[in-house]
Amino acid sequence: AARSIPACASCHGASLTGMEPAIPGLLGLRPAYVSAQLGAWRYGTRTAKAPDCMQVVAGHLTEDDVKAVAAWLSSLPAPANASPASKGTYTLPFDCGSQPN
Q1: CA gap 66, 92 in Å, rounded
Q2: DSSP readout, 46-62?
Q3: Is residue 31 part of a domain?
């Protein structure tokens, strides 16, 4: 059954460097940090401006998914001069309080 989980790149950009003003890049992060953040979203101890899209996304992840995402993201090299995409560069898959469309 589909779990309606968008790819990280759907919101964080094709290069995973984020989008201005508030979607962060995902490169250069340690797996323990990524796991902790996704866990905090899953369990509601981390929140963002409504609608809280990351809480919705993380809520669809299993513990194994979180570990896999953390391992994958931490394996990717961070570009030396990474910068987020300009606001409005791409359209998000759903409404998100941190980045109004």
Answers
A1: 21
A2: S--SSS-HHHHHHHT--
A3: yes
